[in-house]
Amino acid sequence: MKSALCVCGSGQAAQQCCLPLHQGQWAETPEQLMRSRYAAFVEQQIDYLVNTTHPAQQHGLDLPAIWQWSQRSQWQGLEVLHWDYLNPEQTLATVSFIARWAESGVAQQHQECSMFIRRADQRWYFLDPTVQVKTKRNEPCPCLSGKKIKQCCLRELALQKQ
After folding, report:
1. pLDDT tens across 59-88, in order?
2. Architecture of the domain made up of 14-130
């Protein structure tokens, strides 16, 4: 029996591609995380989208809107155009892609260059450009680390504004 191909467009079977990530394994590269996030939209795995977004941004995600968009879209494919992940020590990377879908029968596409960061826990996270974290330097970090934001995520979050 032949395994179904992963919806992310990698050409691999889902069991060897995005499925293990959706079940708790962490992405080894930014491209792998990008593809698994697309697959999560296709499969309405909203918790995965939250968990792979930078921890300080997770509280700012509009979960009902993400869920509704994910459900009403007929996903038609992901094309990864470029990524700049060059070595295992790299902590910041971008992935350029085009996502295609139809909504109410109208074809849509979105092209983006997404930013990903590898944090101290060695996990890659998506830096969401639509979620702004408004906090003062001496306030607790919204990622719930217990540290002040200036000693935790402030530098990482400032990268998305560059």
Report:
1. 889 999 999 999 999 999 999 999 988 788
2. Roll (3.10)
